[in-house]
Design brief:
The complex is a heterodimer of chains A (668) and B (99). With 668 residues, chain A is mostly helical. Chain A contains 26 helices and two strands. With 99 residues, chain B is mainly α. Chain B has a single domain, classed as Helix Hairpins. Chain B contains three helices and no strands. In chain B, helix 1 runs antiparallel to helix 2 and helix 2 packs antiparallel against helix 3. Classes of the chains: A mainly alpha (668), B mainly alpha (99). At the A-B interface, helix 26 of A face helix 1 of B.
Chain lengths: 668, 99
């Protein structure tokens, strides 16, 4: 029964996407939105039913593999269209469909005046379908299929406003970098099949401990290839550059794909393949180390940039860095727990940011925003809740989840103590940049847009301009439409944000050390064979960690208050004194430039060489040579084609005569 | 009667047809001569079939007749088309397919 519900979870979003896509212009826009919402909510309900079915099993047999049919069976290589349902995948299914439902409801209002309403909801449903394929996949081939589909859905949604030059470019960039990750995954799957001789999760994880020695080069290679895929999808160094550009997509997309679900796929992958990573501790350390570097660098960038959505995007990178450290050092359930709470508060922050951006008539620069506290009380409250949860304020969901990861690093000790210190510094920066948003946008004298909203009760009418380049926009393909929608005036947005706000506040209560620990116990069947499953800090250690986290979070918020409210001249002075550091951070540590220098430019140079030399002399030479040969051969015999009918007849006669004479002579 | 007579007659008819095709310029006459050549071939086939005492040759002749009829239909169709478009009825003038 569990498997049936899980298959329905997959089927419903696909049906939704097809229905909306195929009824374009046949059903009204609103209906398309409702179909989209219904499909995802129904999938969520099916997910819950699958969960109930799964919990009914005894804990040691709490996993179900189900196969619909066989794709191919060649020489022992069997590819099934199969899913694997266990607590981990159900956990992901519930997070994905739950948050997606709310984001669909939000989009229903937010995208109201967009011309491409059908297209938007069709893509959105398709994305949810792909993500569910990814998390429910029962073997590495299905995983790759889901992985690639998610990449495509992300591309389609980033480039959703396809007349916007920057958006199409950002979409291509995201797609290309994701494909690099896909290649890592392909290589990993090939190596796994070569070494283990199986491709389905159950068999691979069962046989792996017999096949591989710990830290043998082949298992390390497999895990590193998996990590390439995980890093690219989750925007970790050095594949992080696409995520900030992906903010060109509509805000609900940033909220859904680039905060709550898709970018966490890498974390899921590592947690899913933990039996492999535990055989290759080196690769797991690489994952944790890259996560640490990313979380620190992204934190510094988030403090420096001024584009509202990009600040949140860099904070996403940073928080995913925490999750990578978590699953890298063996704190699997803590990593997954942070994934869940992050989905709540980051989706909420993006939604609130979308509301503010609407009120600014699509301007995203926080330098221009000020004093929205009175004009948008609801959005302001939600922004504050999101920022509190993000910075790990005591009692909020982020406090429990982030500090559980941080604490585990300290618990493991040794070199992980360095990670512990790094993550504490990261937590401090998190608090600063979260409250930088709050203190820059909400208090103070109202800016022109906020004042207009306050006095007239509706959003100021802005010129349709690209926020990044200032170019005039093509309003035909949408560009959030002529009308902008803010949470205060749109029921759907308000509902979605309210639910997420509540979850961001109290979602952490399911995992209070020593009291509830629901997530750990729920995920236990998946991780029971893990070497880390019975290693966890004692309750007093955990609470010490939480208190440390609370102190750091409050210190960070206080620092932000000092910098942006009490002494607003300090950031400017800091910028002047440490010009080089500021330039480095504002330019995102030159990530794009480094990639350009190392990869893009050499490839371009190779392309130019191929174009100038190879194309001209070899390819053109070969084709021109063949063409010339044919032409001269034709010229040689063209005189025979006189067009004279009687001439042809005579030629035929002499030809046949010649043949007859030849055979007569031969036979004689 | 000896087979030679038939073969000689067939050869004569064939030669007349051939010369007609090569020499005459009126497409109608060219078509007539073509028919003559086909008939000459058919006659030779009939004669040899009779000599050898089996029916294969006769069957071939029937097929040749059918093909000849078809060919005449196409040929005469062309002639009519040429006439309708007031083109000169002269095969030497029709040489647009010159390479």
């Amino acid at each position: 029964m569990t498997a049936t519900w899980a298959w329905l979870v997959l089927l419903l979003p696909l049906l939704g996407s097809l229905t909306i896509g195929l009824t374009f212009k046949a059903i009204p826009d609103r209906a398309a939105g409702l179909v989209g919402i219904a499909a995802i909510v129904a999938a969520f309900v099916c997910g819950i039913l699958a969960l109930i079915g799964l919990q009914g099993e005894p804990s040691e047999s709490r996993h179900v593999a189900s196969t619909l049919w066989e794709y191919a069976s060649v020489g022992g290589f069997e590819i099934d269209l199969g899913i694997y349902v266990d607590p981990l995948s159900i956990f992901m299914v519930l997070v994905v469909t739950g948050v997606s439902s709310l984001i669909h409801i939000y989009s229903y209002s937010y995208m109201k005046s967009d011309q491409g309403y059908h297209r938007f909801f069709s893509y959105l449903n398709f994305f949810v379908f792909s993500m569910l394929v990814l998390v429910l996949a029962g073997n590495f081939i299905m995983l790759i299929v889901g992985w690639a589909l998610v990449g495509f859905a992300s591309y389609a949604l980033i480039s959703y406003w396809y007349r916007r030059n920057t958006a199409t470019k950002a979409g291509m960039k995201a797609f290309v970098i994701n494909v690099v990750g896909d290649i890592g995954l392909y290589l990993a799957a090939i190596l796994i099949f070569k070494e283990v001789g199986a491709i389905s999760y159950g068999e691979v994880f069962e046989k792996a401990p017999e096949v591989f020695q710990t830290n043998e080069w082949s298992i390390v290679a497999i895990c590193l290839c998996l990590l390439v895929g995980a890093f690219a999808k989750s925007a970790q160094m050095p594949f992080h550059t696409w995520l900030a550009d992906a903010m060109e997509g509509p805000t609900p997309v940033s909220s859904l794909i680039h905060a709550a679900t898709m970018v966490t796929a890498g974390v899921y992958l590592i947690a899913r393949c933990h039996p492999l990573f535990e055989l290759a501790p080196t690769a797991a350390d690489v994952a944790a180390f890259v996560g640490l570097v990313t979380l620190l660098i992204a934190g510094t960038i988030a403090i420096a940039v001024t584009d509202l959505k990009r600040i949140i995007a860099y904070s996403t990178m940073s928080q995913i860095g925490y999750m990578f450290v978590g699953v890298g050092i063996g704190a699997y359930s803590a990593g997954m727990f942070h994934l869940m709470t992050h989905a709540f508060f980051k989706a909420l922050l993006f939604m609130a940011a979308g509301s503010v951006i609407s009120a600014m008539a699509n301007m995203q620069d926080i330098d221009k925003m000020k004093g929205f506290k009175r004009a948008m009380p609801f959005t302001a409250a939600m922004l504050i809740i999101g920022a509190l949860a993000l910075s790990g304020f005591p009692g909020t969901s982020g406090w429990f989840s982030k500090d559980e990861i941080i604490d585990f690093a300290h618990f493991r000790g040794g070199m992980y103590d360095w990670m512990w210190v790094g993550m504490l510094i990261g937590a401090f920066m998190t608090a600063i940049y979260s409250f930088r948003i709050i203190f820059r946008i909400l208090p103070g004298p109202a800016c022109k847009e906020a004042e207009y909203l306050e006095q007239h009760g509706h959003v100021i009418h802005g010129e349709p301009r690209n926020p990044a380049t200032g170019e005039a926009e093509d309003t035909e393909v949408g560009y959030p439409g002529e009308e902008h929608h803010i949470a205060e005036q749109a029921g759907g947005m308000k509902f979605a944000m309210g639910v997420l706000g509540a979850l961001a506040l109290v979602g952490g209560l399911v995992q209070i050390p020593g009291v509830t620990e629901v997530i750990t116990r729920f995920l236990e069947p998946t991780f029971e064979h893990s070497v880390f499953s019975h290693m966890h800090p004692s309750n007093s250690e955990a609470w010490t960690g939480l208190i440390e986290g609370a102190v750091i979070s409050i210190a960070g918020i206080a620092t932000a208050w000092l910098l942006y409210i009490k002494r607003p001249d300090l950031p400017a002075r800091f910028r002047q004194t440490f010009k080089a550091v500021h330039t480095l951070c504002v330019n995102k540590w030159y990530g794009d430039e480094i990639v350009d220098f190392l990869i893009v430019n050499p490839v371009k140079a190779l392309g130019r060489f191929a174009n100038r030399v190879f194309e001209r002399f070899v390819v053109d030479g070969a084709t021109a040579g063949v063409a010339g040969l044919t032409r001269s051969a034709g010229a040689a015999v063209r005189d025979l084609q006189s067009g004279m009918l009687r001439g042809y007849a005579a030629l035929m006669l002499f030809g046949i005569l010649a043949i007859v004479v030849y055979f007569l002579i031969r036979s004689a | 009667m000896d087979i030679e007579w038939y073969v000689v007659l067939s050869a004569l008819l064939f030669t007349i047809g051939l010369i007609g095709v090569l020499v005459r310029r009126n497409p109608v006459v060219v078509l007539l001569c073509l028919e003559l050549m086909l008939s000459a071939g058919a006659l030779a086939m009939l004669a040899f079939s009779r000599m050898l005492g089996n029916q294969d040759g006769q069957v071939f002749v029937l097929i040749v007749l059918v093909v000849a009829a078809c060919e005449v239909v196409v040929g005469l169709g062309l002639v009519v088309a040429m006439y309708r478009r007031r083109l000169p009825l002269d095969v030497d003038e029709m040489k647009e397919l010159k390479g």
